[in-house]
C-alpha cells in the first residue's frame, strides 16, 4: 500500500511538469516576435483578444451573468 501511495503522489509533479513544458515550448516559439515592438504589441493584442473571445464565449454558453 505504501508503494501505491508513493506512486500516486508522483502524478501531480508529472502533471505540473507536462503543463510547464507546454508553456515553455509555446513561449519559445513566440520569443522572436517580441524583438520588434510592433510585432510584440500585435502578439499581445492577439493573445488578449483570443483569451477574451474564449472567456466571453464560455460565459455565454454557460449562461453566466456578465459582471
SS class: mainly alpha
**Main sheet?**
none
Number of domains: 2
Number of H- or I-type helical stretches: 3
Distance between the termini: 48 Å
Helix content: over 70%
Low-pLDDT sequence parts: none
Instruction: Please indicate the percent range of residues in DSSP E strands (runs of 2 or more).
Output: under 5%
Query: Which sequence of SSEs, written as H and E, runs from N to C?
Result: HHH
CA-atom Rg in angstroms: 19 Å
Folded structure, characterized:
With 67 residues, the protein is mainly α. The protein has two domains: 1-33; 36-67. Helices cover 81% and strands 0% of the residues. It has helices at 2-9, 11-30, 37-62. The protein is flat. The mean pLDDT is 92.
Q: Secondary-structure blueprint of this entry?
A:
Elements: H1 2-9, H2 11-30, H3 37-62
Compact summary:
This protein is an all-alpha fold and 67 residues long.
Relevant terms:
mainly alpha, 67 residues, 2 domains
